[in-house]
Amino acid sequence: MSDSLLLIKFAGLLRSGVPIDKALKHVGGVPADREIRYLLQLCQQVGSAVAYELEQVANIYSYRQQALERLKVNQAGPKASARLVIWLPLITLGLAQLSGLAVFESFLRAPVLLFSLSLGIVLLAIARLVSNRMVAAAQPKADPAGLLLLGVALASSGGAELGVAKRLALGEFRRVFQAEPDERELRALAEIEMLVAETGARVADLLRRQAGLLQRGIITESELVIEKLSVKLLLPLGLVVLPAFIFITLVPLMVSMLGKV
């Protein structure tokens, strides 16, 4: 079950009057995922009046999950292109053999070609290693940005005053994640506190919208990284695969066609 569906189901149970502890049992208990565990454990502290707030949080999670899936699809193109380029020298060598050029027999007649082949394979292995690392670095990941703001929104919707809600959410965040929240969130929370103090605006709406903006910013950054990946992959593939193509394919083909080493 996805994070958003789990939250929607939990909120629906609370709306139906099911106690929090029993609702948690119906959704399989407190999940291992730290983000969801943080929100559900915070709900236990503030009471079941947070059902509506949980549904709003679920909408943000749903948007994030859809965006992450879209990013993974976008990343598949550069990843597949890198694999094709890396395997191209060996594919070309196999096609040459099938076309009757007797490339493999040339390796048996000329030991120097085995050295050329080995050198080309080493270069391909290096290209694969480098490209895999670059693709892994561009892998879109779920980022907890905005989670503290959502936690404060949950606590305040449960009836806690903003200062108390902040302390509850911050304390639970530190306990679950064993870390401090992102500096961007703390600044955003301070700005919202000042705005609420001056205008009396509804704090939960402001916190949810700010959390959504942070998540959209993370998604945009991931999209830019993936867009740049296609260009960055050209460097290792061009510098390494091209020489490998020469050592694996061109040199044996030339020897095979000329009939000499």
Structure description:
The structure is a single chain. By secondary structure, this protein is mainly α. 82% of the residues lie in helices and 0% in strands. The chain contains 11 helices and no strands. Helix 3 packs antiparallel against helix 8 (162-177) and helix 5 (103-109) crosses helix 11 (234-258). The termini are far apart. The mean pLDDT is 79.
Spatial gap, N to C terminus: 63 Å
Gross geometry: elongated
Report the uncertain regions.
none
Radius of gyration: 28 Å
How many helical stretches?
Answer: 11
**Number of E-type strands:** 0
| Mean pLDDT reading | 79
Helix content: over 70%
Main sheet record? none
